[in-house]
Amino acid sequence: MGNYLLRRVLYGLLVLLGVNLITFVLFFQVNSPDDMARLALGGKRVAQESVDQWKREKGYDLPLLINSEAPGSDKLTETIFFQKSVPMFVGEFGSSDDGRNIANEIVKRAGPSLALAVPVFVLGLFLNIVLSLLLTFFRGTYLDLTGVVLCVLAMSISGLFYIIGGQYLFSKTLALVPISGYDSGVDAWRFLILPVIIGVVSGLGGGTRWYRTIFLEEINKDYVRTARAKGLSEVQVLGRHVLRNGLIPILTGSVTVIPLLFMGSLISESFFGIPGLGSYTIEAIQSQDFAIVRAMVFIGSVLYLVGLILTDIAYTIADPRVRLA
Predict the structure, then answer these.
(1) Left (φ > 0), alpha (ψ -120 to 50) or beta: where does 193 sit?
(2) Which structural domain range is residue 153 located in?
(3) Is residue 35 part of a domain?
(4) In this structure, is residue 129 part of a structural domain?
(5) How many domains does the chain have?
């Protein structure tokens, strides 16, 4: 176990370095430090002296990847990529273009993102599993067929429709909840209940249909026939055997959601005015603040890699046949 985790961590560091390099190259393919300076200073007609001063203050006056004029190892270290990327591996994200500390902003905005994403994840996972087990129990019947049709219809509807329709019906027409905004403390539920419900409902179609497929693959295997032969009821077979053996693909799919639990939902937070990490990222992309974009991509990559490692460990709990060497 220890050797396996060490290898995964080392692989993860290489992946993080590669992700940072790709993000860096892609960003500066469509932008230059001069473009960033002029956008931050307020227009294209800004004097070159002001642009150069902004680049010196923000650390963008160095070459991008290779400093051909520097001696020795400084060719790689005296570059924008090295100066901006390496500190992130020790948790130093620097400041945004407007001078705010990025780490402080991440800590402050993580709470609203978690308050929205965790209920959506937990409730969605629970309902998807329950509904898919129900359809599996009634497989081949009209109830199963109706459920599959409804799932396909739900999958075919854009998530924006749920958001806009929910805001129009529950906020504008019925005036049950605020249409957007956020308030910390006890009153936060008034602003979160609608996006949480919409997040859960919009994911039911795809999740239920996928889990149903997983359970149907398990229901006809030999160990299920053996369990039935021992006299177990269909409910016991589904709960004790089919569900447990279906947990591995479910865990694999769930790991992709882990970064969203911390990174926030880009669309939901923007439409509902929730000051989380998702809206923070959207604002950074719109303002071309590379420092924030780089930090958010880095954090998302770290969380995804951590999720993969935790999933591998969870495999050994869900299925004793799996062992990590």
Answers:
(1) alpha
(2) 105-288
(3) no
(4) yes
(5) 1
**CATH code of residue 193:** 1.10.3720.10
Element (H, E) at 314: helix 290-318
pTM for this model (two decimals) = 0.79
User: Do 61 and 52 form a contact (C-beta atoms < 8 A)?
Assistant: yes
Token output for 313: 């460990």
**CA separation for the pair 235, 246 (Å, rounded):** 15
Tens digits of per-residue pLDDT, 122-163?
A: 999 999 999 999 999 998 899 999 999 999 999 888 888 899
In degrees, to the nearest 5, what angle opens at C-alpha 284 toward C-alphas 37 and 11?
Answer: 105
Please name the amino acid found at residue 321. Answer: R
Q: Contacts for 37-42 with beta carbons within 8 Å, 24 or more apart?
A: 39/287, 39/288, 40/97
The answer as to whether 4 is a domain residue is: no
The whole-angstrom separation of Cα 140 and Cα 96 is 57
Nearest to 208 by CA among 141, 150, 151, 143: 151
Say if 14 falls within a structural domain. Answer: no
